[in-house]
UniProtKB/TrEMBL annotation, chains A, B, C, D:
MF-aspect GO terms: potassium channel activity; proton channel activity
Organism: Pandoraea terrae
Cellular component annotations (GO), alphabetically ordered: membrane
Tagged with keyword RNA-binding: no
Subcellular localization: Membrane
Main location: membrane
Protein name, entry field: DUF1211 domain-containing protein
Family per similarity comment: Belongs to the TMEM175 family.
Keyword Lipid biosynthesis in record: no
Length: 191, 191, 191, 191
């Protein structure tokens, strides 16, 4: 099966997720600069989530670039990833509106961790169809960054109940680490 | 006529339907775990609807894969299917917010049944253009699963007024049955 | 310039317009059948608007099928059409919520008329780039149906202030006339 | 890397941005013409923002038309542009609802200026990958219009606190100047 439609559908869903988050930035009633201040936590969370969803789109783009065949298991693994990403606007709102209190901060991490695990499962489903010795396997390597991210999320979730500000810093640092595009796959493509 | 644009348009509409449902998961005002509890029915319905819309996208993807020509009747049969799918967010919300009371549970089933019938009509419109002896006819076969689903929906609709919990279980079981991708079409493609 | 992206962008905008209208169908708080009744006018208007937007997508699909080149003027004529279509959800809501009172019914017609004029201007912009003797000119013909539609809309707008129910009937009849796909273009493609 | 998916994703995000703005045009409760009047500032701002987002889509379309290769830096420069464009619905609402008071008018200009700078950075990222002597460099030229626009925005932002109406006029004039498609790139394509 071709990969065009699964790419197009994923692009559509991710484009909507990244854009509807801005609907939660409700314009304040007053028209002074001070009226914008209460929006600051929501706005900062919006930026963080925008980067995360952007990172997923970027990695998804790179991942499917080295892929040729798509089977039923990949379709479902992909929908599973999109499901967890679709919850990002919800946890963004909850964390932003509650000014980074413990539970919302923890749940934000849970959704990030589940999305990371879903992405990992997607790479496994693709590998199962392409064989361990394919270009894809070389491109993914041991995926140290992916595995460390999940560890970081789990650590941040636990920390949410003690120091939510540190959890938030961890989410931000992991996002920045991922901002650097996946050179491994780019190198394989160049070769 | 080519099938690229009808696929792209359907992908767009389905991507929006599957994503805007999450807008109904309104972040609660409190920031405790207990504040999330009232959202549980809406969240469970969201998962169910996400799977259903995902199933339709998957089957739509498989269906158009074995199709070559698109005529006017297919365009309208496809829009008719998208119309019923577009009502999924509405019935999802109504059933979730009313905690699976009779009428919302029944209406959810009506929309599922109408979508299934619309999908059937779409396959008929495609068959009419490709001839009964085409690859498509072989792939669709007698469509026992599709027909049994409609029977299950009708049964669940009637049951909504007596045992809505059982209706809900039927919707969930049918969704899980469909999670298994349509091997018939995949087999025809492989051959 | 290629036409792929203008088609993809138009498909995206039209897919969003046709889908976000359902967000206006707000689930009622009660869970009885009677609680759905107040939604009836909004639901009927939703069906009417769904058909109209579907008709525009269908005709847009047919139109660009016989087109080869895209220039600056076509890009803007297309955005102009999308602008008027983007107002359909707004007038749908206003007319539906106000139970077909004069002004909302008239404004609904104004948006339909402006969209029809915008579509006509788009065909002119395309003709200007392809020459009067092209396949496109043959396919469009004298466009009697398009011109009569505008006349019908103008008549219905005037009538809104006296007999809004008749205006609504006119909108519905014009929609049904357009449900029949544009055989003229299909004939030219077949030849 | 191919450019198809980055184009498709950008088309999706821009299509959503341009369409969800209309959700802010909330249908009034009354059904008289007078009930529409309070919406006039929001509607005018909607038209202005629709033109701006349309201009960005048009220029993006032209820009990627003369581009062959896409690397990691371009993916991020493009997401950066989409981020600022995603804030257009927010500032549109704030400015429209507050009837062009100083701060909202200034913030509208800030988002326009940041989007213009992001677009400039995107052209730099593309130039860095294609070399200064490529078709792209010839097409972009010295980009006088782009640089003058940023100057105009900065001037309008400062003026917002004294004469917001003049700032608004500047935004409108810049939009109209950009309505004229980028002939430079079209000329290079024709050659």
């Amino acid at each position: 099966m071709g990969k065009t439609r699964i790419e197009a559908f994923s692009d559509g869903v991710v484009a909507i997720i990244i854009t509807i988050m801005v609907l939660e930035l409700r314009a304040p009633h007053g028209s002074e600069l001070d009226d914008l201040l209460p929006l600051a936590p929501t706005f900062l969370t919006y930026i963080l989530s925008f980067i995360y969803v952007g990172v997923y789109w970027n990695n998804h783009h790179h991942l499917f670039h080295v892929v040729q065949r798509i089977g039923g298991s990949v379709l479902w693994a992909n929908l599973h990833l999109l499901f967890w990403l679709s919850l990002v606007p919800f946890v963004t709102r909850w964390m932003g509106e509650n000014h980074f209190t413990p539970w919302p901060t923890a749940l934000y991490g849970v959704v990030l961790a589940m999305a990371a695990i879903a992405y990992y499962l997607l790479t496994r489903a693709l590998l199962a169809q392409h064989g361990e010795n394919a270009k894809l396997a070389a491109a993914l390597g041991r995926d140290v960054k992916g595995k460390l991210s999940v560890v970081a999320y789990l650590f941040a979730i636990a920390l949410s109940f003690v120091l939510p500000a540190v959890s938030l810093a961890i989410y931000a640092i992991v996002a920045l680490v991922w901002l650097i595009p996946d050179r491994r796959i780019e190198h394989v493509i160049e070769r």
